[in-house]
């Protein structure tokens, strides 16, 4: 939300650029760190499956896929309640607690002995992680203006890409620890990454900032300035009722916005979980597979950063969403039709990763910054991400062992999902255009394209 400058109180002694740099340094690095640990802990099972987890735990049939899926059940169900709790308990308490809990679950996962054990640990992991992603976007959205948001959202989003790339490198190193202490290498993957997460959680309690109105590391004048420039001082800030939650879902654009995100989540998670499995079918060793899984994440990281600067500079999101969708469709089309050509197939994997991750963060920023005030953003960020992550459930069953090595079914599902994103984007644009026409000048309710 942005305000008419004519109504602005005087903040003549505030160094705006200096203050924003101060906010960047205090807010973004610690959120980036805890989500790196969260995403590592979520998807490192994909590396573990290539190291012998399936054989050691005697998993058969679709049991590995069920182990991936169980994470999303609490993750989806508890994201809206989690945002409500974060608002009540404050971000530094809630987010750090969640981080310590899912780190503990990850360490426990390193000692499981059965299918039931892996299910239990991943259920707790999903429950604890449900607060991190939507809560972080909810918090970030209140610290920046609309034309500053894409770069900051993307910096946080890139934690996913760094985690994906670093996870491959870390897994290739831990693969050499097989037998140390009498433990298999895949167990060490869970234990070491879980311990790192617990440390990050303890540190985050002291470093995570709260919402601007409670940020004690700012002066009172600086807090007032941040609230004014982002419009927080013009929005209600109180308890959220069930009636208000119900009213939120009566607006069609909020529904289509979630479907936009859902469609890109399917290929994002499909790649994140199954890239090592897919790349291994190209004939590489375990270590070579882990190292090559880094490259698509790295290329996606570069493109996301470039798009973030261009999107904030132009102050539009739609063309960049469509560009990412186009890249993902092109990559999937190649993977569906080209076989026995590892170089071309690997290039296509890069296109899918670049397109999915780039359009994904553009969609998140676009949707969240078109929400107004604590009420809409607390519900809306959790709704978009919780509904979108039901696509993660579908993604865990896209690439089955029986479909190797061509995975026609998996690529077809991802193609269908990304097409749903394309259609939902068109519908979202239609409702945003309608909202822009109905919005009165000076109301502060701005909607961007």
What features would you describe in this structure?
The longest helix has 35 residues, at 16-50. The protein has one domain (17-438): Up-down Bundle (Growth Hormone, Chain: A). It is 75% helix and 0% strand. Helix 8 packs antiparallel against helix 18 (373-388). The model is unreliable at 1-7 (pLDDT under 50). The protein has helices at 16-50, 53-56, 63-69, 72-77, 79-89, 91-109, 115-129, 132-141, 146-174, 185-207, 220-230, 242-248, 252-280, 286-292, 294-314, 318-337, 342-369, 373-388, 390-395, 408-438. It has 449 residues and is mostly helical.
Structure characteristics:
Growth Hormone, Chain: A, 20 helices, globular, disordered N terminus, MFS, mainly alpha, transmembrane helix, transmembrane, MFS_dom, 449 residues
